[in-house]
Task: inverse folding
């Protein structure tokens, strides 16, 4: 039986899940940002202005969806020289389009841009009390999750963070593996924190975003969401289910598993790398075959349990695999990670 890792049904919608407007420190108004992305073929934008939660449901129609969201930061600069401070940046996305308030909010930055006029007395009472520690950040994430928000951990490299800062985080939905604004600033993200979390058994999704502040940040990294429609609930359902991939270029048309073989259909690419939590031979590169206009890569997922060290190709049941699709221009797409335990047919 064929299993679809990215759903067969539905439509792909192009999304940017991290951006800024004049409501915080972006160069463009929310209306201008929407127009730029719509003109570039996007259908979904999450407005993640810093430290202020302003729903944009009035932007949504049959061709466009605004996801209500915001970004907070918790920094250690009170304790260290300003230049070297680390910082946690997290995005919070409302599962319910009618959410009018965020459970986690800091008023310290609402004085930038055009945001002050939106700041209500209710918001001012919900100041983030977090300090720079894993324990405190986990409390923020927990509160957000309990109140109907899901959370992305943003740009660890730009934030000067390392394993000690993120390995203990709990309850994350996503992690940025690409952030165009951070690339512009010379601090490109990597997949190291993503794999570090996966190797601990924490299921997080890879996100490519723009974090658009200025014109140069637009259209560098995005998420292709496969949803039944552009309705808020359908898109949130698809995001929470991992029914998407993220990319800086390559396109994925199909990702399915049948008879222990993964089939990946893409546009023209260079190769596909399978990443697992095992060293070689768990991580392998596969070259595609051209079939008409589509490139097709068939990847056998072999399980050899009888001789773990010598023969294991892809791993034990708690192991995962994920794909990186590499374009000829060096651009890359990232699938979610999948746990072998969810595919019992591989062990028969
Ligand atoms: Zn940020
Ligand atoms: Zn940001």
Result:
């Amino acid at each position: 039986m064929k299993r679809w890792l990215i759903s067969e049904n539905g439509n792909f919608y192009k999304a940017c899940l991290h951006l800024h407007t004049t409501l915080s420190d972006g160069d463009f108004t929310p209306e201008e940002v929407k127009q730029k992305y719509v003109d570039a073929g996007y259908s979904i934008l999450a407005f993640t202005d810093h430290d202020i939660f302003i729903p944009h449901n009035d932007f949504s129609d049959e061709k466009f969806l605004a996801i209500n969201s915001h970004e907070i930061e918790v920094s250690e600069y009170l304790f260290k020289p300003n230049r070297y401070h680390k910082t946690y940046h997290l995005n919070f996305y409302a599962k319910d389009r009618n959410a009018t308030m965020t459970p986690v909010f800091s008023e310290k930055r609402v004085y930038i841009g055009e945001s002050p006029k939106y700041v209500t007395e209710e918001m001012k009472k919900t100041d983030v009390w977090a300090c720079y520690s894993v324990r405190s950040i986990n409390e923020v994430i927990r509160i957000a999750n309990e109140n109907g928000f899901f959370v992305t951990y943003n740009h660890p490299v730009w934030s000067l963070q390392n394993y000690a800062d993120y390995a203990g985080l709990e309850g994350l939905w996503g992690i940025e593996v690409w952030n165009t604004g951070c690339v512009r600033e010379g601090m490109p993200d990597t997949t190291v924190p993503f794999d570090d979390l996966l190797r601990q058994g924490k299921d997080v999704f890879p996100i490519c975003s723009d974090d658009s502040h200025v014109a140069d940040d637009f259209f560098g990294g995005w998420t292709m969401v496969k949803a039944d429609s552009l309705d808020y609930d359908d898109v949130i359902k698809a995001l929470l289910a991992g029914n998407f991939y993220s990319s800086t270029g390559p396109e994925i048309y199909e990702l399915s598993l049948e008879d222990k073989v993964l089939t990946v259909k893409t546009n023209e690419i260079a190769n596909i790398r399978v990443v697992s939590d095992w060293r070689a031979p768990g991580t392998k590169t596969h070259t595609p075959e051209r079939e008409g206009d589509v490139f097709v890569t068939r990847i056998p997922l072999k399980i050899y349990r009888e001789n773990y060290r010598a023969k294991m190709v892809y791993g034990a049941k708690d192991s995962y695999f994920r794909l990186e699709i590499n374009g000829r221009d060096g651009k890359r797409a990232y699938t979610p990670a999948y746990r072998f335990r969810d595919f019992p047919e591989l062990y028969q």
Remarks:
- Residues 103 and 144 are 6 Å apart (CA to CA).
- Residues 9-247 form a domain with the TIM Barrel fold (CATH 3.20.20.140).
- The first helix runs from residue 30 to 39.
